[in-house]
C-alpha cells in the first residue's frame, strides 16, 4: 500500500493541494488558496428518518464504523447526536475549523472588501514558486489589484493569467 501525503499541514494549520507526479511521487503545493477552505463545505447531517429509508446505506455505514475505526476516526462527530437524533458528519475536527475560519476572516489572508479572495493576501509579498523540469510556476496576488493570479505554464517558463 502506497502511503500518501496528507492535505492538512500541522505546522501551517491549513489544507494544501498535493501534486501527483508521473513517477508516483507526491508534492504538496503550499499555496494558500480557496482549495484549502473547501473542507469547510464538507458537512452532512444524517437524519434518522433518512437512514431508515436507506437500509443498505445504513448497513454499510454501521460496517464502516465497526470495522474501519481508523478511517471513521478521521470524520468528526459520527456518533454525536445533534438536533434530536440527527448525526452531523464532517471531514475535519473543531480545531481545524477554527483555524480555517480564522484565516478566511483575516484581512491579511483571505478576507477582502469584496468578499473572500481565491488566493491569500500573503502571496502578495511572498509569491509561491514551484520549480519542475527547469520551469518556474508561480502564483501571487498583485498589489492593489482585484485580479486574482492563477498558476499557469508557458513554454518559456513562468506565466500569469488573471480572472476578474
Can you walk me through this structure?
The termini are far apart. The chain has helices at 48-53, 55-67, 69-72, 94-104, 122-125; strands at residues 8-9, 14-15, 17-20, 26-29, 43-46, 87-90, 111-112, 115-116, 128-132, 135-139, 148-154, 157-163. The longest helix has 13 residues, at 55-67. The chain contains five helices and twelve strands. The chain has 164 residues and is α+β, with helices and mostly antiparallel strands. Strand 3 and strand 4 form a beta hairpin. 23% of the residues lie in helices and 29% in strands. A two-stranded antiparallel ribbon has the order 1-2. A two-stranded antiparallel ribbon has the order 3-4.
Mean pLDDT over the full residue set: 75
With helices defined by DSSP (H or I, 4 residues minimum), what is the helix count? 5
Q: Radius of gyration in whole Å, from Cα?
A: 20 Å
Strand content: 25-35%
Uncertain stretches of 5 or more adjacent residues: 144-164
| Strand order in the sheet with the most strands | 1-2
Distance between the termini: 43 Å
Helix content: 10-25%
Spatial shape: globular
Number of strands: 12
Order of helices and strands: EEEEEHHHEHEEHEEEE
Largest sheet: 2 strands, antiparallel
Please state the structural category. Answer: alpha+beta
